[in-house]
Write a structure and sequence with these properties.
With 869 residues, the chain is an alpha/beta fold. The protein has 28 helices and 31 strands. Helix content is 46%, strand content 18%. The strands form 11 sheets. It has a 4-stranded antiparallel beta sheet with strand order 6-5-14-18. A 4-stranded mixed beta sheet has the order 10-11-9-12, with no helix packed on it. The protein binds one RNA strand of 77 nucleotides through strand 8, strand 12, helix 7, helix 10 and strand 27.
Length: 869
RNA sequence: GGGAUUGUAGCUCAGUUGGCUAGAGCGCCUCGUUUACACCGAGGAUGUCGGGGGUUCGAGUCCCUCCAAUCCCACCA
C-alpha cells in the first residue's frame, strides 16, 4: 500500500469513524476492573445545527475521553440532546404561524406531535454532525431529556421537593413575555440600553418621574426615603386627594428605603403589579396591587378610554392627556434606561404577578453533611468545601456572587413543549405525584417545567437504568441504588462546558443533584470560552460571512484540521478567535504527519517496530524525546492544558521527529526504530487528530495490535543519557556548520581528533550540508566557536573578514552575559538570599561563558593576524 | 453602582510557586526544486512585556495607582 502524496481527509474519515463505532471502543464497561472516568456531554438543543461552539466542546471532551482511555481508564462519555422547551416551542409556533396556524387551534396533543417531528429531524442531523467531528461518546447510552426514564426522574424530584416544601405555588411577580406568552426565569432576562423619554408628572403635591406613564393608572401610593428632609412634613400613612389621569384618586404616603433621594425628585409612585422593586415595596408594607396591563400586552379596563390599546400606541395619547390636564411638568428626551428582553426571541419583558410554581432556595430542608441546610447553602458549601473544583478558579467568585443574589426560581412555563408539571387539581384539592391520581375529575396543571429543571438532573438521570425507571414500585432511591451506571460513574469526573451557562446549568445541576442524590454531580468543572471570529467579534447570525460552518471546513480541510485549530490557543475561561488561516495552518500539520508516515512507509514499511532497539545517538535521543512528550502529555491533559499539550506534540513531530530524527535516519537508518517512534507519535497525536492518525495506523500495518483508538500510551523509557548528550552535541555542531558556512560562503570543514566525530562525520556532513568534513591534524581555517571540539572551516582572507564581523557579534553577546553574571555574583545579598543551587548554577554559567570568550578571543586574534598579514 | 478578565514581536497567543540573554505559530527578509512533504527545508530581522510607583539580591510574573479594551451582575421610578 503506497500512500498518496497529500492527505485527503474525505477519502478516509467516514470509514474510520464507522470502524471505531463498530469495534465498541467507545463503549463504557461498568464491570471493568479498571478505574472509571466519566463525562456527561452537555446536551445540545435540538433546535438546529451544530456550530463552531459545539465543535469546541465536542473536541475538548473527545480529547479527554480518548486521553483517559489511553491512560488506562474505563471511560464513559455519555451523549445526549436537550428538548430545549422554550426555544423549540417558539420555533415550531413560528413555523405554524407562517402557515397561519395558532397552536391553540391545533390543540395540545397535535402541537406536541409537530414538535416531536421537528425535534427528531434535527436530532438525527445533529448526531451525524457529532460523528463528523470525530466525537466518540458511548452511543449505546444516548439519552434525551424527554426520555421516559428522565421524565420519571423529573417527576420524582418535583414531588420530593414539593413534599419537602421546597416547591411551592404562589402569586409573585414574574418576568412575563407577552410575545411568547410565558414566564421566564431571572437568568433568561437580558438588558439592552435604550434612549427614551423621562416624564415628570404632578401627583397631588408631589412631582414624580416615570418612563412608563401607561402603567400609572392605578397608582395610589407615593413613596419616599424615610430620611429625606424635603418631605419630612409627610408621615408614613398620610393620605391625600390628587387629580390623576382619569379623575381624582386617594393616595397614601409610604416611606421606604428603596427610594434613592438623589434620583429625580426623590419621590415616586409605585406599580406593584408590573415592577419588581415596586412589588417588593408593596409586599413590605402590605399594599394593594392592581393589574394594569393584560397578559396580551394590552391595557385593561382600569385604563378607561385607553383600555384595549397596546402600550406603544397608548403611551403618546396618555402623555397628551396628562399635558392637557396640566399634569405634565416636563419631559426629558435624553434618558437612557435598560429594556428587559427575553433572551430567547428577544421579546420585551412585562413583569406581571402570576400564580406560578417556584423553588424555594432559602428553606432549610436539605440534608447535607449531617446538617439541614437550604439549597442555597448547599450550593455554596460544595464549592467552599472543595467538593467541586471550578477551572479556572476565578469563576468561583462569580458563582458565589450569583448565589448571594439568588431569588426563588420560577420553574413553571406556559408552553406545551416540555415536562408537564406533575400536579393535579380537583376543586380545592391539590395532588402532586409521579403518576396521575386515582379517581375521576382531576385536571393536570397545564404548565410545563423550565428546561433547566430537567437539565439540572442530567449527570444522573441519564445513568438510571431505563428498565428500572419503568417500574413504579421502586422509589427514587431504589432507582439510583440498583442502576449500575449510577453506582459506577456518579459523581462524574468532569463537567466540561462554556462559562456562559454557569448559572443556567452548572449551578442548577449542583442544586438539584446534591438534593436528590446526596452527591455532587461532578468533581471538576472545566469552563471553556466562546469561539469568536478572527477579528474578535461574536459569531452571530447578523454577520453571516464571519460564521465558520464546521461542516464546510471539514469537507474542505478535514476534521482534524478543525479540531487542532480549536485546541491551539484554547485556555480555560477565555474566549478564543478562530479564522480560516488558523485552520489552514493546522491542516499543514496534518499533512506533515502524513508525509512523515509516507517516508517511514518507504524506509521501514516492513519493520515490525514493536520494541525499540536504539543503536545510534539519534535513536537514543528521539526515544528520550518521545518519553518526555508522553509524560508531558499526561500532565498537561490531566490538568486541562489542551493547548500546551498540543504545542508540545507539534514541536516533537515537526522539529524533533521530522527535522532532526528522520534527517539523521537517512544517514543511519534504523527501520525498527522509525516504525516504533512513528507508532508512538500516532498514539500521542490521536486524541487531537483522531482521523489521520487512525488512518495511518491502519495503512502502515500497525493494526495487528488493534485500532489506534484502543491503544495505551507508549511506555516511558529510561534514556541512556550519554548517548542522548552525544546527539545534542551533533545537533549543535550541525547548526554551527550550517550557520557559518552560510555566513562566510564556504562549505569545506575539517575536525581534529574526536571519537564522536570519527563516528558521526558522515551525519554532520549530510545534515549540515557541507561539501567536505574530514579529519586532520592541522589547524586549517577558521575555528568554529564550540567547546570540546576543534572544527575548522576553510576560508580565504575575505571570508576571514566576514568571519571576524560575525564573531564580533557573538563576542559582544557573551561579554554582556558575563557582565550580568558578574554583577549578580558580586552582590552579597544574592549570594546570601538566593537558593544555593541557583548561585552555583550562576557560577558554572560564568565559568562556561569565560571559556567561550577565551575561545572567541584566541580565535579573533589568530584570524585578525592572518587577515592583516 | 458592584465584580471579573485582558493588555508581551506586524497578527494570534505561551510564559507554571518571582530566577539563564523573554518564547511559539503565522507574517516579513535571504537562500535552497537534497529521491516524505513548496501544505517543504536552511538561515535571518523584529519586543522601553500598556504607563508610573513600590516590595525584592532579582519583577513579564507580587503589591499600589493610572490608562485602554472586553465581559458579567445589579438597576433608579
Amino acid at each position: 500500500m503506497k500512500l498518496p502524496s497529500a492527505y485527503n481527509p474525505g477519502d478516509y474519515e467516514a470509514d474510520i469513524y464507522a470502524s471505531w463505532e463498530k469495534s465498541g471502543v467507545f463503549q463504557a464497561d461498568p464491570g471493568s476492573p479498571k478505574k472509571h472516568f466519566s463525562i456527561s456531554m452537555p446536551p445540545p438543543n435540538e433546535t438546529g445545527t451544530l456550530h463552531l461552539g459545539s465543535a469546541l466542546f465536542l473536541v475538548l471532551q473527545d480529547i479527554l475521553a480518548r486521553h483517559n482511555r489511553q491512560t488506562g481508564y474505563d471511560v464513559l462519555w455519555l451523549p445526549g440532546t436537550d428538548h430545549a422547551a422554550l426555544a423549540t416551542n417558539a420555533l415550531v409556533e413560528k413555523q405554524l404561524a407562517e402557515q397561519g396556524i395558532d397552536r391553540h387551534q391545533l390543540g395540545r396533543e397535535a402541537f406536541i406531535e409537530k414538535v416531536k417531528q421537528f425535534s427528531s429531524q434535527n436530532r438525527g442531523r445533529m448526531l451525524e454532525q457529532m460523528r463528523a467531528m470525530g466525537a466518540g461518546p458511548d452511543w449505546s447510552r444516548l439519552r434525551y431529556t424527554m426520555d421516559d426514564a428522565l421524565n420519571r426522574c423529573v417527576n420524582e424530584v418535583f414531588v420530593k421537593m414539593y413534599d419537602d416544601g421546597l416547591i411551592y405555588r404562589g402569586s409573585r411577580i414574574v418576568n412575563w413575555d407577552p410575545q411568547l406568552k410565558t414566564t421566564v426565569s431571572d437568568d433568561e432576562v437580558v438588558h439592552k440600553e435604550e434612549q427614551g423619554t423621562f416624564y415628570t408628572l404632578q401627583y397631588g403635591p408631589f412631582q414624580i418621574g416615570t418612563a412608563r406613564p401607561e402603567t400609572k393608572f392605578g397608582d395610589k401610593y407615593v413613596v419616599m426615603h424615610p430620611e429625606d428632609e424635603r418631605y419630612k412634613q409627610y408621615r408614613h400613612g398620610d393620605t391625600f386627594e390628587a387629580e390623576w389621569i382619569n379623575g381624582p384618586v386617594k393616595a397614601t404616603v409610604i416611606k421606604d428605603e428603596a427610594v434613592d433621594p438623589a434620583f429625580g425628585t426623590g419621590v415616586m409612585t409605585i406599580t406593584p403589579w408590573h415592577d419588581h422593586t415596586d412589588f417588593e415595596i408593596a409586599e413590605r408594607h402590605g399594599l394593594e396591587k392592581e393589574q394594569i396591563i393584560g397578559f396580551d400586552g394590552r391595557l385593561l379596563p382600569i385604563a378607561g378610554e385607553f383600555a384595549g390599546q397596546k402600550i406603544a400606541e397608548a403611551r403618546p395619547k396618555i402623555v397628551e392627556k396628562l399635558q392637557a390636564k396640566g399634569l405634565l411638568v416636563k419631559t426629558d428626551e435624553h434618558y437612557t434606561h435598560n429594556l428587559a428582553l427575553n433572551d430567547r426571541g428577544k421579546g420585551l419583558i412585562e413583569p406581571q404577578i402570576k400564580l406560578q410554581w417556584f423553588v424555594d432556595v432559602n428553606r432549610p430542608a436539605v440534608q447535607w453533611k449531617g446538617q439541614l441546610r437550604s439549597l442555597r447553602e448547599v450550593m455554596h458549601a460544595v464549592i467552599e468545601d472543595g467538593d467541586i473544583k471550578i477551572v479556572p478558579k476565578r469563576f468561583e467568585k462569580i458563582y458565589f456572587h450569583w448565589i448571594d443574589n439568588l431569588r426563588d426560581w420560577c420553574i413553571s412555563r406556559q408552553i406545551w413543549w416540555g415536562h408537564r408539571i406533575p400536579v393535579w387539581y380537583k376543586d380545592e384539592e391539590i395532588y402532586a405525584g409521579v403518576r396521575p391520581p386515582e379517581g375521576q375529575g382531576w385536571t393536570q396543571d397545564p404548565d410545563t417545567l423550565d428546561t433547566w429543571f430537567s437539565s439540572a438532573l442530567w449527570t444522573w438521570s441519564t445513568l438510571v437504568k431505563p428498565e428500572l425507571a419503568a417500574d413504579f414500585s421502586l422509589s427514587l432511591e431504589d432507582l439510583l441504588r440498583l442502576s449500575p451506571d449510577f453506582q459506577t460513574y456518579h459523581p462524574t469526573s468532569v463537567m466540561e462546558t462554556g462559562w456562559d451557562i454557569l448559572f443556567f446549568w452548572v449551578a442548577r445541576m449542583i442544586l438539584a443533584t446534591t438534593y436528590a442524590t446526596g452527591q455532587v454531580p461532578f468533581k471538576t468543572v472545566y469552563l471553556h470560552g466562546l469561539v469568536r471570529t478572527e477579528d474578535g467579534k461574536k459569531m452571530s447570525k447578523s454577520n453571516p460571512e464571519a460564521i465558520i460552518d464546521p461542516l464546510e471546513v471539514i469537507s474542505q480541510y478535514g476534521t482534524d484540521a478543525l479540531r487542532l485549530a480549536l485546541v491551539s490557543g484554547v485556555s480555560a475561561g477565555n474566549d478564543m478567535r478562530v479564522g480560516l488561516s488558523k485552520i489552514i495552518d493546522n491542516r499543514n500539520f496534518c499533512n506533515k504527519l502524513w508525509n512523515i508516515a509516507r517516508y517511514i512507509e518507504g524506509a521501514a514499511g516492513d519493520a515490525d517496530g514493536q520494541t525499540p532497539e536504539p543503536k545510534t545517538p539519534a535513536d537514543h535521543w528521539i526515544l528520550d524525546k518521545l518519553s518526555i512528550l508522553t509524560g508531558a502529555q499526561r500532565r498537561n491533559l490531566d490538568n486541562f492544558k489542551f493547548s500546551e499539550a498540543y504545542q508540545d506534540l507539534y514541536h516533537f513531530v515537526w522539529d524533533d521527529l521530522a527535522d532532526w530524527y528522520i534527517e539523521a535516519a537517512k544517514a543511519e537508518p534504523n527501520a525498527g526504530l522509525l516504525k516504533y517512534v512513528l507508532g508512538g507519535s500516532l498514539i500521542l497525536a490521536h486524541p487531537f487528530a483522531p482521523f489521520i492518525t487512525e488512518t495511518l495506523w491502519q495503512q502502515l500495518g500497525y493494526a495487528k495490535a488493534g485500532l489506534l483508538a484502543a491503544q495505551p500510551l507508549p511506555a516511558v523509557l529510561q534514556a541512556d543519557k550519554a548517548e542522548v548528550a552525544k546527539f545534542e552535541d551533533i545537533k549543535q555542531i550541525v547548526s554551527l556548520a550550517r550557520r557559518w558556512s552560510k555566513a562566510i560562503g564556504s562549505d569545506t570543514l575539517v575536525y581534529h581528533d574526536s571519537e564522536l566525530l570519527d563516528q558521526a562525520a558522515p551525519l554532520v556532513k549530510r545534515l549540515g550540508r557541507v561539501g567536505k568534513f574530514d579529519k586532520t591534524t592541522e589547524a586549517a581555517g577558521l575555528r568554529l566557536p564550540i567547546e570540546g571540539y576543534e572544527i575548522f572551516i576553510s576560508a580565504n582572507k575575505d571570508k576571514g573578514r566576514a568571519y571576524l564581523e560575525k564573531i564580533g557579534g557573538e563576542k559582544a553577546g557573551t561579554e554582556s552575559l558575563i557582565n550580568n553574571l558578574k554583577v549578580r555574583l558580586n552582590n552579597e545579598n544574592y549570594i546570601n538570599s538566593a537558593p544555593p543551587e541557583l548561585v552555583q548554577e550562576s557560577r558554572e554559567q560564568l565559568e562556561a561563558q569565560y571559556q567561550k570568550l577565551k575561545l572567541l578571543d584566541e580565535e579573533t586574534r589568530m584570524v585578525s593576524d592572518w587577515v592583516s598579514r
